[in-house]
Amino acid sequence: MADKQKIWGGRFEISTDELMEQFGRSISFDQKLFHADIAVNMAWAQALAEIGVYSSEEADRVVEELDQIRKDFENGKLIFSPADEDIHSANERWLTERLGDVGARIHTGRSRNDQVATDVRIWIRENLAELSIALRDLQHSIISLAEKHGQTVMAGQTHLRQAQPVSLGHYLLSFFFQLQRDYERLLHALMDNDKMPLGSGALAGSAFPVDRFALAKRLNFEEPTENSIDATSDRDNITQVIYVCAQIMLHLSRLAEDWIIWSSESCLYIKIHQKFATGSSMMPQKKNPDSLELVRGKTARIVGHLVTLMTLMKGIPTAYVRDLQEDKEPLFDSLEQTILSVRIINGVISTCKVDAKKLLDSLDPALYSTDLADYLVKKNIPFRKAHQIVGRMVQYCEKQNIPLKDLSIEKMQEFSPLFQKDVLSLFTPLAALDKRNLYGGTGPVSLSKQINIAKKILNG
Ligand code: ARG
Predict the structure, then answer these.
(1) Are both 196 and 247 inside the same structural domain?
(2) 273 in active site
């Protein structure tokens, strides 16, 4: 393609190598910025009118035509040409084809460097808003399920080994609070994203004295960026958004891992709804938790994107370099896949079936060992000694192959004479929960406090 047609073609005698052209083109992915780029163009046309580059009639025509381009694009009437390196050059070409010189003047005092940085911020803003809604919906579903299971006892595990009884509601709310931290991180990212680079030019600031504060207002930004070099080459906002996504995905991935195990034939504590499962092309009986597995898998991808951004930024010299074009695919993919994953997990949670009996039946009586030790502590035995005593009891039961709770009181007394009949009351799941009603504990009173806190957060 003749370089004269390119927006930067003037100084070139010879056409770009075709492979190079393909290599540099970002339009296949940065067309996602189409709407943001139209908005930025409209605002820039108005800013140019304020300083007399456009008459107000010309600016109106530009804005009207940009709106028509938007409609035509949405209706699939516009096609990209090989000259369109990116969405910014495509929009400029369409405008110029329609308005001649009036269109061609849109790039006055502007660079794609400040344009792309502004477009991306608008795209981020819109997609973070979607993510925040998806997160809130998921938090709502978690509360609803937790409310039903304040008295559903399960074996809380550490090291994937039975540890102490907890309520399923308590377990579920642990994700509410993880996601709440994510939500707060998201709000922070939104705030940090709220500065407008437009007017920074290629790096030095525009030589046309547009009112950047008015421009920022028009584009719904809090304020303009303070430094044009920083503004055109800063990608902290992107790294930060991907970090927020990665952190959400890590949380979802851990939940997914639990639920894949819990829904497997070896547990059957929960049933994943058929809507969120798939079968096997070969084994007719299979119902696989692909929804959860995909969330776990996509987490790897998004953590990878975070590493991509950080590596991308670590060695570039000051101000814009073309490397920065590589920021977009990781950003778009991270936000899009995270939004999807949050919605999928919401679907899984709000349609699953819990088998409370299976959860209860899975409890190994050895789970009450800590409570047995605490029993002795209350009779003035130092905890370390009590731990030893109960440890020996557990060892004895293991050797004899009997459950801890089937030890006779006489046998227990051989380990410590302090054991009395009332010790048997420890071996009830709800009693174990009831002991832990301190703030933040798994007891039902604590849980209802947590639910109140969670609801208050959501009603904000
Ligand atoms: N597509 C480019 C990007 O995303 C736009 C900026 C191009 N600027 C330049 N100086 N070549 O980074």
Answers:
(1) yes
(2) no
Query: Residue 120: CB within 6 Å of ligand 1?
Result: no
Range of the domain at 62: 9-107
CA–CA gap between residue 254 and residue 391 (Å, rounded) = 31
Nearest CA to ligand 1 atom 4: 325
Q: Are residues 192 and 299 in the same domain?
A: yes
Residue 149 pLDDT: 97
Tell me what pLDDT residue 3 has.
63
pLDDT (0 to 100) of residue 2 = 54
Is residue 1 a part of any domain in this protein?
no
115 lines ligand 1 (CB under 6 A): no
Tell me, using a 6 A CB cutoff, whether residue 324 lines ligand 1.
yes
What was the pLDDT predicted at 7? 81
Give pLDDT tens digits for 174-205.
999 999 999 999 999 999 999 999 999 999 99
- Enumerate residue ranges in the chain where pLDDT < 50: none
Same domain, 102 and 143: no
The kind and range of the H/E element at 224 are: strand 223-224
Residue nearest atom 11 in ligand 1 by C-alpha distance: 322
Give me the CATH number covering residue 403. 1.10.40.30
Task: Judge whether 344 lies within some domain.
Answer: yes
CA of 121 to the centre of ligand 1 (A): 15
112 lines ligand 1 (CB under 6 A): yes
Looking at the structure, do residues 86 and 160 belong to the same domain, yes or no?
no
Q: How many domains does the chain have?
A: 3
pLDDT of residue 421: 95
